[in-house]
Write a structure and sequence with these properties.
two-stranded antiparallel ribbon, mainly alpha, 337 residues, disordered C terminus, 41% helix, 6 strands, 12 helices
């Protein structure tokens, strides 16, 4: 199986099992929060030389992000990256890409940040959990808002280091890449700078949704992996200018065999003041990724945790709600992912 092959039904089912396991691991009682806080305190003390005063919890988390390993020695060189959710063919609800990446990481030998020593440890600390925060306050002197900030920066730094360490193929599990996601603001820019990866080393295992405001041929063009990885959803949102999108397309680096198509699309977009002004054209026959009905990338389930009481999760970590495992509908013959 190619590392970037579409997820199998077994991998999708495994993703929902992992999501439910993560939800079950979140402390819901004060006793559970106390137990986890004691473990964090003991891990912290193990880093402090005997007889010395330690730097405190915030410094411990920041140092973990700078020094702990972002490579799973039991996996190969190819690395999975993820963001938000994907609507997959034959699945009756969106699939959290965080857990889909982990499921495919298990079956395909992919590196996944949450399964590396650094990611696994920080994820297991549940530092966005209110029960854990309340208990940690008995051991450390910190403001909850300061810990939130350090926790978010720690995931950002781990993500940056994880991308820097990539030497193989990148397998992305995402729908539209948003500008504010860790994938969009930190990981993909670093991967494009990484000379071992670049635009040609980034592959998508999940489909790009259909964008109904875009002409079909334009929408088909941006599903090409080397193009898709250089765009964010805000570049082609319905309320933006086609001319601005044309300028963005003209500025990116596309493969030689796609430059002629890019030039034609840029010319069309440049002549339209708004997307309804564009003439719809039917693309040439050929395989295309399965398309979802929605332009939106779906609910945000990961890349830095904030406690549920303070807002919706925005990055790496567990979301407040994990959907039950869906029924997988039989896949129609001949349907491409």
């Amino acid at each position: 199986m190619r590392p970037d092959a579409p997820p199998t039904p077994e991998e999708i089912a495994r993703a929902f099992v992992l999501a439910q396991a993560q939800a079950a691991a979140e402390p819901t009682e004060m006793e559970d929060g106390n137990r986890l806080a004691l473990r964090i305190h003991q891990d912290y003390l193990a880093t402090v030389p005997a007889g010395e005063k330690g730097p405190g919890l915030l410094a411990y988390i920041a140092n973990l992000a700078e020094t702990a390993s972002v490579t799973n020695e039991g996996r190969g060189p190819d690395r999975a990256f993820w963001s938000y959710v994907s609507q997959l063919d034959g699945v009756d609800q969106p699939v959290p890409n965080r857990f889909l990446a982990r499921a495919c990481g298990e079956s395909r030998g992919l590196q996944v940040l949450e399964d590396t020593p650094a990611g696994h440890l920080l994820n297991a600390y549940c530092l966005g959990n209110v029960k854990v925060l309340d208990s940690l306050a008995q051991h450390f002197d910190f403001e909850p808002e300061d810990l939130d900030a350090v926790h978010g920066k720690a995931w950002d730094r781990l993500s940056e280091r994880y991308a820097e360490a990539t030497t193989g193929t990148v397998v992305a599990f995402a729908a539209d890449i948003t500008q504010g996601s860790v994938l969009g603001k930190t990981e993909v820019p670093e991967l494009l700078r990484n000379t071992a990866v670049g635009k040609d080393g980034i592959k998508f295992a999940t489909p790009l949704p259909r964008h109904e405001h875009l002409p079909a041929d334009v929408d088909a063009f941006i599903t090409n992996d080397p193009v898709r990885c250089q765009l964010v959803m805000e570049d082609y949102a319905p309320d933006t200018s086609p001319r601005d999108f044309a300028a963005k397309l003209e500025a990116i680096d596309v493969p030689e065999d796609q430059k002629e198509a890019r030039a034609a699309i840029v010319e069309r977009l440049s002549q339209a003041a708004a997307y309804p002004d564009l003439v719809q054209e039917t693309p040439e026959p050929g395989p295309k990724a399965a398309l979802a009905d929605s332009f939106l990338p779906g609910m945000n389930v990961g890349h830095s945790i904030v406690p549920a009481a303070r807002g919706v999760p925005t990055g790496h970590g567990a979301g407040a709600h994990v959907p039950p495992a869906p029924q997988l509908a039989p896949k129609p013959a001949g349907v491409e992912h």
